[in-house]
Amino acid sequence: MSVLCTTLPEQLSLLLVDDHRIFLDGLSLALAPLCKDLQIRTAESAADAEICLQHASFDLILLDLRLPDMPGLALLQRWQQQGRMTPVAILSASDSNLDAQAALAAGALGFISKSANSDELRQAVTRVLLGETLPTPQQGDKTQLTPRQLEILRLLADGLPNKSISRQLGVSEDTVKTHLKSLFQEFAVHTRTACVSAARQRGWL
After folding, report:
1. Largest Cα–Cα distance of the chain, in whole Å?
2. Which residues contact 125 (CB under 8 A, 6 or more apart)?
3. ∠ CA(127), CA(75), CA(202), 5° rounding?
4. What is the pLDDT of residues 124-160, one digit of tens each?
């Protein structure tokens, strides 16, 4: 505890955004040793978080990827568009490298797994508060979307059939099908609609 406190200000204000009250309570307890005067506010939805931000300023927001009224990355992107400067780290039960990359691409300073123990959690939060960007989860599978896959994903979201996608990108239909197969595998889905939905949830669209 003392090591953390010597590197951080004595007073900090955090906003924790997650739709599970029990997790919020546990997170608050885990973060309590961060500094002498730690103020923690909690929100269980995007709407609650917006209200909190209207009435107070925070040193850091810990934001869940899955909220009942809006995906966490969509909320983060809204804050970015509004020019909000509060640092944000994503909290998620997912250990997916793709999710982590999407979070960083959306403007998050870090991606913290909910499977982290209390010490790991405090260390990760401390690093973000000190201005560091946390590395993405270390996994054997480092798969990420290629620029071509992203193009196909966006056209898929526009409702274009394979033939139209192939014409627009100047590639064969077989190439489009190969990329779609890879996307389906990456998102663990079996239909075009589910692929688009999963991509939106992860912040790729």
Report:
1. 62
2. 14, 31, 34, 60, 62, 89, 112
3. 80
4. 999 889 888 876 655 444 446 788 888 999 999 999 9
